Amino acid sequence: MKKPAPIKVSRRNHIRLIVVLLVATAVAVMFSRRPFGPLRPAAPERTVGQQARPKSGEKRSPSPDAVFETPSATTVGPGMEAVSGGLELPAFASSEFVIRNEAGRYTLMYDTACRQAAWVAYLLTRREAQRKGTERKNVFRSDPEVVARGWPTATVRDYARSGFDRGHLLPSADRDDSAEENGATFYLSNVSPQRPGLNRGPWRLLEEQVRRWAVRYDSLYIVTGGELRASLPRIAGSVSVPERYFKAILVCSDGEWRAAAFLLPNEDPPAGRFADYMCSVDSVEQELGMDFFAALPDSIEHRVEAVLDRSFWR
């Protein structure tokens, strides 16, 4: 039987065949690496008012849109678990130790070196400011969240015979709906060494005035804490003693935003009344290097924080 003549392939067709085979191989490899299932949807574009995810070292804060719609909106930063909060939150880096205490309805940023909160932020409403009559828990103890994460914590022994009061940052009287929420204010992460003349004098009177403002204006966004730094003296060699304490307050009354701040010395006692230490939020931010109420749109934040209307905060 006569053999068929061999098929001759021109050089040009030979090159074309090789190219086709290479392209087919590349396509096959690409599809083999793609996981089965639907493709992940593209990230939504940011809308006006939302903040982009910060770069390393940048400060971050909750989305203004989220907190205006729901004051308990969830905020998330890279390297940090979800944190509930809203307008009361100052700006903070995602790498910082932020705790949301659901029982006490407050958020704090814990300073592991100073063994106390750098700040505590919370919403105080008219209903919360009105006394419920729940018995004050008065049982101080280490914050279980700090213990669970393995960081150093203040203890009750640190304050024993120190000459300092265990000063609340979020006041006990602001959370007295139940024994559980009142007890959450006695975590030592919410406590700082205050001189008795401050804690039992102007600081206590300021807390009482803040509750009256909450009853009058309904909802106050508050952030408070001690001015912390590495060189501060310590009690029991562990818990830092701030030289000054701050409290910043934001409120919306009759459709208009207003803010005020206080910066009181940790003295025994401070000179004058707490009202003598009232100032604009901007001035305290500059003193402390902080950014309060960072979720407010800049157009509101800049205007409100620069002005102090003493006639409103009477």
Explain this structure to me?
The protein is an alpha+beta fold. The chain has one domain (83-306): Extracellular Endonuclease, subunit A (Extracellular Endonuclease, Chain A, 3-Layer(aba) Sandwich), CATH 3.40.570. 27% of the residues lie in helices and 21% in strands. The chain is built from 10 helices and 13 strands. The chain has helices at residues 11-33, 64-69, 126-129, 144-148, 156-159, 179-184, 196-199, 202-217, 281-288, 298-306, and strands at residues 74-75, 83-84, 98-101, 106-111, 116-125, 165-168, 191-194, 219-226, 234-235, 239-240, 244-253, 256-265, 278-279. The strands form 4 sheets. The chain has a 7-stranded antiparallel sheet with strand order 3-4-5-8-11-12-13, sandwiched between helices. Strand 9 and strand 10 form a beta hairpin. The chain starts with 10 loop residues before the first helix and ends in an 8-residue tail after the last helix.
Overview features:
alpha+beta; Extracellular Endonuclease, Chain A; two-stranded antiparallel sheet
Give a brief description.
The protein is α+β, with helices and mostly antiparallel strands. It is 27% helix and 21% strand.
Largest sheet geometry: 7 strands, antiparallel
CATH class: Alpha Beta
**What's the alpha carbon Rg, rounded to whole Å?**
29 Å
User: Total number of β-strand segments?
Assistant: 13
CATH superfamily: Extracellular Endonuclease, subunit A
Q: Which secondary-structure class do the elements indicate?
A: alpha+beta
The pLDDT mean sits at 81
- Distance N terminus to C terminus? 116 Å
Shape: globular
